[in-house]
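Researcher: Please translate sequence to structure tokens.
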Amino acid sequence: MTPNLQPHTDPAASFRRLMLWTGVAAFLAIVGALVYLALTGVAMPWHMIIATVLGVGFTVLLGGGLMALVFLSANSGRDDEVR
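Model: Translation complete:
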């Protein structure tokens, strides 16, 4: 039995699926960062927790979003029109 290696025909669905997984990765990165800071014994006032959540979350979401846009552009066929 060979795996189905056909590309997805709907680039928007692939984009949404990739952004969903990026959101999961961002959540896990936020939790990991907060757990790491708690285990190191650092005092964690509210403003540090909020800054960590926003900083780590935004960074992971931005990176994943830009990568998703690259894949969306490549899979939509618009890049081939330039040639």
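Researcher: Any highlights?
Model: The helical segments are 11-39, 46-76, 78-82.
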